[in-house]
Design goal:
Order of helices and strands of chain A: EEEHEHEHEHEEEEHEEEH
Structural class of chain A: alpha/beta
Bound molecules: flavin-adenine dinucleotide, adenosine monophosphate
Strand order of the largest sheet of chain B: 5-9-4-1-2-3-10
Distance between the termini of chain A: 58 Å
Shape of chain A: globular
Strand content of chain B: 25-35%
Number of helices of chain B: 8
Radius of gyration of chain B: 21 Å
Oligomer: heterodimer
Largest sheet of chain A: 9 strands, mixed
CATH topology of chain A: Rossmann fold
Number of helices of chain A: 6
Helix content of chain B: 10-25%
Shape of chain B: elongated
Largest sheet of chain B: 7 strands, parallel
Structural class of chain B: alpha/beta
Mean pLDDT of chain B: 92
CATH superfamily of chain A: HUPs
Low-confidence stretches of chain B: none
Number of strands of chain A: 13
């Protein structure tokens, strides 16, 4: 089974800086780390490979420094890596990102399964997986919480919706996005970390993937961030309940009674 | 695309009921419509009839598409149905619930249309013809306003419980039936669907919630909290670490990878207040938090705080209410 896992480099912390003019994230300002949910995606892919054979590639679109994130994926056990990197990809929203990744998947060719994380923790959209699935005209199962192999071309997937679980038979080629409950990602071992520097890493720009210049980067992004601001404190009163636990509870019960909550 | 000045909303329902978030979206759309028509798209099975529940909230129109394959549609089928409807009438804006289902269908439709989609919005307004979506980023440390100036429809998804639903009297909702040709989805068979645990034990719709975190994780504490909650008519929710316990799952988890809640009363016990947790409790009305660390981030996000031991507080609360 030829599997590609799409991973994203996200800021190390959520204390981020923005370009005051373009409102874009100043990525260079903070070192990146792999989007935590994408580790679950890599783990899922590695387990599938270990069951049925095949290969696992990790792929990211990002600045040259995103190579580090790919090395993390390789150190977990992926076989090779693709970095989609070019100034022309900069400023991409989810649509342009999805298009760029879809083009790369076409170029790689023969991919049976694409695995995405549930969502990236910087923007929290979870859109890129379904966009790629649509552009490649493939079926998708989002929010997968269990994956079983039926045969080389068929998976049995449990999908957790908010209040329901679905059991789905999925014929490859297909796209999955996985929930973090699916598995516990393995640690990078020293041997794998060492190996990660010798595994193949391919860098592609917009020409390599035959991308339509109007569909990538800022130009291919229909959404515009018009304003960035600090969220206001919800205006909470921060009053203290005081004394012993019993005294504090009495104060609380008073408040609840006043508000007809008890 | 021509702009017919319509705001569309995709209705969400399970086998039994329309999801409250659909009503919340209708109410909000009506509030910001400024003359635009509010149209609900209802995709349902041939045995299902949800239009009446929806019309109580006063949309101008419901476009009902009824087919066997729409009882449990694949995401691609739902997206394709919406695409076909949009080939006939192009809405100015399209609103989705930021539920697992909405988050899966909307981006597929987005890719078909080549338009913009802003996920997980906390507020919406029109600025002229542009829908301004207010959205948190970086674990809610930053708020962004996002528009889609060049393409239509402008699409957004909105977290459940962000807006309050209100029934509307005196609106005559027109119900239109649309016939579509829906091909069987490629490569996917939804074999079975089950209601996860019991929704009644979930925290999403609860009006009172007692939430336990790592500082309140012992068996005795959990047992006492359950009794206290029963006495108060509250649900028990948890921060993510407590889902490691066998008796809690993501159904009870509050936060970014769990549920957004909007109770009238929320009591946080032994929860530090990580941003991933806080995003789930923004909309709670009265927040009271108990933590032995006066500087825990949760305290700054609370109306009332008590600095002290979780177990001792819960015990006193239970005693005071005569819960054993
Ligand atoms: C991608 C991602 C998604 C996530 N999604 C979620 C999510 O949806 N929901 C979620 O909750 N978390 C989520 N997390 C985890 C989150 O970052 C925190 O780790 C988690 O919320 C911490 O839970 P906690 O407050 O219970 O535990 P801790 O952070 O360990 O806090 C325990 C608190 O209890 C207090 N305490 C300890 N003992 C006592 C005592 N005896 N009496 C009183 N107080 C006491 C401590 O002072 C402390 O403040 C996510 C993380 C990631 C990376
Ligand atoms: N720039 C990117 N490069 C590779 N994969 C990405 C990128 N952005 C998002 N993804 C993938 O898409 C998933 C959802 O991301 P998002 O839609 O941004 O929340 C992530 O978990 C990744 O698997």
């Amino acid at each position: 089974m030829k599997i590609v896992v799409c991973i994203k480099q996200v800021p190390e912390s959520n204390n981020v800086k923005f370009d005051p003019v373009t409102h874009n994230l100043l990525r260079s300002a903070s070192t990146g780390r792999i989007n935590p949910y994408d580790k679950n995606a890599i783990e899922a892919a590695l387990r599938l490979r270990d069951t049925v054979g095949g290969s696992v590639s990790v792929l990211t679109m990002g600045p040259p420094a995103a190579e580090e994130t790919l090395r993390d994926g390789l150190a977990m056990g992926a076989d090779d890596a693709y970095l989609l990197s070019s100034r022309a990809f900069g400023g991409a929203d989810t649509l342009a990102t999805g298009y760029t990744i879809a083009q790369a998947i076409r170029k790689i060719g023969g991919v049976d399964l694409l695995v995405f994380g549930r969502q990236a923790v910087d923007a929290d959209t979870g859109q890129v997986g379904p966009i790629v699935a649509e552009l490649l005209d493939q079926p998708q199962v989002t929010f997968a919480s269990k994956i079983a192999v039926l045969d080389d071309h068929t998976l049995h997937v449990t999908r957790d919706l908010d209040d329901r679980k679905q059991t789905i038979r999925l014929t490859l080629p297909a796209v999955l996005s996985v929930r973090s409950e699916l598995n516990t990602p393995r640690y990078e071992t020293p041997v794998n970390i060492q190996d990660s520097f010798t595994k193949p890493l391919t860098v592609w720009n917009e020409k390599d993937i035959a991308a339509d210049p109007t569909r990538i980067g800022l130009q291919g992004s229909p959404t515009v961030v018009t304003k960035v601001f600090a969220p206001e404190n919800a205006g909470r009163q921060n009053q203290q309940l005081t004394g012993t636990p019993a005294e504090a509870v009495d104060q609380l019960i008073n408040i609840l009674q006043q508000q007809n909550l008890i | 695309m021509t702009n017919t000045e319509e705001i569309w909303i995709l209705a969400e329902h399970d086998a039994n009921r329309v999801q409250p978030v659909t009503f919340q979206l209708i109410t909000k759309a009506r509030a910001i419509a400024a003359g635009r028509r509010v149209v609900v798209v209802l995709l349902e099975g041939t045995q299902e009839h949800f239009a009446e529940q929806i019309s109580a909230y006063g949309p101008d129109e419901i476009i009902r598409v009824s087919a066997d394959s729409l009882e449990r549609p694949a995401d691609s089928t739902a997206a394709s149905a919406l695409m076909q409807l949009m080939a006939k009438r192009q809405p100015n804006a399209m609103l989705f619930a930021a539920t697992a289902q909405g988050r899966s269908i909307a981006p597929r439709l987005q890719a078909k249309l080549g338009t913009g989609l802003t996920a997980d919005c906390l507020d919406l307004r029109f600025d002229g013809d542009n829908l301004v979506a207010v959205k948190p980023s970086y674990g809610d440390n930053v708020m962004c306003e996002i528009t889609c100036p060049q393409r239509r429809p402008q699409m957004v998804s909105v977290r459940p419980n962000t807006f309050t639903a209100e029934k509307a009297g005196g609106v005559r909702t027109k119900i239109t039936t649309a016939e579509l040709t829906l091909a069987a989805p490629k490569g996917i068979v939804i074999e079975d669907e089950q209601v996860a645990v019991s929704s009644a034990t979930g925290v999403t719709g609860a009006s009172k919630v007692i939430a336990l975190g790592r500082g309140a994780k012992g068996d005795a504490t959990v047992a006492r909290t359950r009794q206290l909650a029963a006495r108060l008519g509250a649900s028990v929710g948890v921060s993510r670490p407590l889902t490691d316990r066998d008796d809690f799952t993501v159904e009870q988890q509050i936060g970014q990878s769990g549920n957004t809640i909007a109770p009238d009363f929320l009591l946080n016990v032994g929860i530090s207040g990580a941003t991933q947790y806080l995003v789930g409790i923004d909309q709670a009305k009265l927040i009271v938090s108990v933590n032995r660390d006066a500087d825990a981030p949760i305290m700054a996000q609370s109306d009332y705080t008590y600095t002290g031991d979780a177990e001792a507080f819960l015990k006193a609360f239970a005693n005071r209410l005569d819960v054993k």
